[in-house]
Design brief:
Elements lengths: L1 H7 L8 H22 L1 H4 L8 H35 L3 H21 L10 H12 L8 H11 L4 H31 L5 H31 L3 H19 L1
Helix pairs in contact: 2-8, 2-9, 4-6, 4-8, 5-7, 5-10, 6-7, 7-8, 8-9
Length: about 240
């Protein structure tokens, strides 16, 4: 979102920094709705199609998600204003793209063949610390959590799926925080043009996210993530040349 904003530089209707944040919130809400729709059955502990044991396992999954969210909540509350003031720029994005792109390539080359599909509570806590790193722009919340899962010995599919599970409370919490700030600054009055812009952004994000989630889950089941590492490094070089130099 930072890169597209810097590249296009188009004016939003009635644009202010506060409204731009709200605009980003609606994009995130569209994306998170796509996650909820895609994994609704797996995350629903009350489904009539599930046995009692499956319902217990689903509730235990939510417990692990809650444990993984703790590091992010602590770090986000303490550092959110500092990050917004000093790190929300393309230079930070370029640096983190290179760091995590290199990490993906390194991890995939060094990985052992034996991989686990079982996420334990300690796994969840450790992945939570990797998710907390995503407070830094360009890190990628899904990228950092998947990388954390790989380092812990989880297989790609399990790491990616758990990353999407974590996205639901993470993005809802971040969106509520930003929406609250917007209301405090500007109230809830919006023009018709602003409402249309927010609605279109959410619908577009929802549709694109549905496609992307299915593509990624299919991809990680059979292929290494080295290509994503290379993609991140190439994108960082483009950013350095286009935006910085």
């Amino acid at each position: 979102m930072l890169l597209m904003d810097a590249l296009l530089g188009f004016p939003l209707p009635g644009e202010t920094e506060a409204f731009k944040e709200l605009f980003f919130v609606f994009i995130q809400l569209g994306s998170i709705l796509a996650v909820a729709v895609t994994f609704f059955y797996k995350l629903n502990p009350f489904s009539r199609k599930k046995s009692l044991e499956e319902k217990k396992n689903t509730l235990f999954l939510w417990l692990k998600v809650a444990v993984a969210e703790i590091p992010l909540v602590i770090i986000a509350l303490k550092l959110d204003e500092f990050i917004s003031a000093h790190l929300m720029n393309v230079s930070t994005v370029a640096i983190t793209l290179i760091i995590y792109g290199s990490a993906f390539i390194f991890v995939e080359k060094r990985r052992q063949l034996k991989q686990s599909s079982e996420i334990t509570v300690p796994h969840a806590a450790a992945i939570g610390f990797f998710q907390a790193l995503s407070c830094i722009p360009g890190t990628s919340r899904s990228g950092s959590t998947i990388l954390g899962g790989l380092l812990l010995g989880l297989d790609r599919s399990t790491s990616a799926e758990f990353s999407f599970f974590l996205a639901i409370p993470t993005m809802i919490g971040a969106s509520l925080l930003k929406a609250t700030r917007f209301i405090q600054k500007c109230g809830i009055a919006l023009t018709a043009e602003q409402i249309i812009a927010l609605t279109v952004s959410a619908i577009t994000a929802f549709a694109v996210s549905l496609i992307t989630i299915h593509f990624l889950m299919d991809f990680v089941r059979t292929r290494k993530l080295t290509v994503f590492g290379i993609y991140r490094i190439v994108l960082a070089l483009v950013i350095i040349i286009f935006f910085i130099l």
